[in-house]
Amino acid sequence: MKLLRSERFPAFLLLGAAVLGLLVANLPFGGAVIEASHAHLAIPGTGLDLSIAHWVSDFLLAIFFFGAAIELVYEITSGQLNSVKRALTPAIAAAGGVIVPIAIYLLIAGHDPATAGGWPVPTATDIAFALGVLAMFGKGLPSKVRVFLLALAIIDDIVGIIFIAVLFAHDLDLGSLAIALVLVIAFAVVSRYLNPRNRAVLVPIMIVLGLGAWAFTYLGGIHATIAGVLLGVAIRQNTGMHARHVLEPWINGLILPVFAFFAALVMIPQVSVSELSPALWGILVALPVGKIIGISAAGWLAVRLNRTKGEEPAIHFADIVAAGALGGIGFTVSLLMANLAFADDPAIKDQAILGVLGGSLIALALSAVLVSWRAAHHRRLQREGTEPAEPEVHHAPDEIHGQLE
């Protein structure tokens, strides 16, 4: 379990699952595996009728978003984003890291109505992957670099959640959504009465309420992962942090690798380079290039705006550039948005997914070089005594997961 709570191993697992999915899809039996992933599994009498792939992306990924939302709430209320001054620099940097990739994507693929709708895809940052690369290559980096990246990725997640909720809703059923909201409120109320004495009774009730909220969100026409977000926001904070700690090994060791495997189940198109979709090129360029330019430029501006005269900068520009490269590792949320944006065009969707995988791998390689360079620089400063060594910083929710009344 400790291995699955680390930052390095889950990143390897996620990448391995994606590579395996891409490999399986392009073996002789790959077509049969892809067809099997589209087989439907329905729950009679509920209206829930999803393919295996959609059970993974709509249901399992809702659990991932539940954990992410708990961390979002913690950081906004008690963590690194709990004041305007502390949130300003990563917020402005994140805005640049969203706007510039969109602009690059639209410049490359926006002229074609079939591909223009993919502009949200290169806006995401994969927290698990980025922190995994930072852990592997960033020994010696100041904790403020990790904090900046974490805040940046969290704000990116907020933007991604908004995009998913607003852009990919369809055939809204207000009655079902109202029931989902009532169930979320009931979930929140029950979580506030949870304690070690009544846990055996109330935890099953919370699970039933959570499943009901997910089902009615799906039936209401909003992407069902939003239910995970709402439940993560609604749960009492201490209870939520404990739940996140319990779920973390399952999210890192099962949910995200399974999602990555199914998302990467695409056949590499047997076409010439000139016949590849603009969506592939737009994402392939916008993720690594757009993120590093957008985050670096906006982050530099934010540091200048947020800096008191004569004060040491909150984070140096070169470290912002390294964080910008890490921001180009879109992966999980980008794969989800590629599936949603091109759901009606499987051929373009497959190429968009290849763009996400390729762009994320380019960003991964670039960030490994830049993070290693900056880490070596900071280690040298520490040896020379011009920069104090800092202890490793962990996610605050993990440190206090046991604080359950």
UniProtKB/TrEMBL annotation:
Keywords: Antiport, Cell membrane, Ion transport, Membrane, Sodium, Sodium transport, Transmembrane, Transmembrane helix, Transport
Topology with respect to the bilayer: Multi-pass membrane protein
Parts of the chain that traverse the membrane: 52-74, 86-107, 147-168, 174-193, 222-238, 250-268, 280-303, 315-340, 352-373
A Pfam family reported for this protein in Swiss-Prot or TrEMBL: Na_H_antiport_1
Record's subcellular location: Cell inner membrane; Cell membrane
GO MF annotation list: sodium:proton antiporter activity
Family: Belongs to the NhaA Na(+)/H(+) (TC 2.A.33) antiporter family.
Protein name stated in the entry: Na(+)/H(+) antiporter NhaA
Organism of derivation: Microbacterium sediminis
Gene name of the record: nhaA
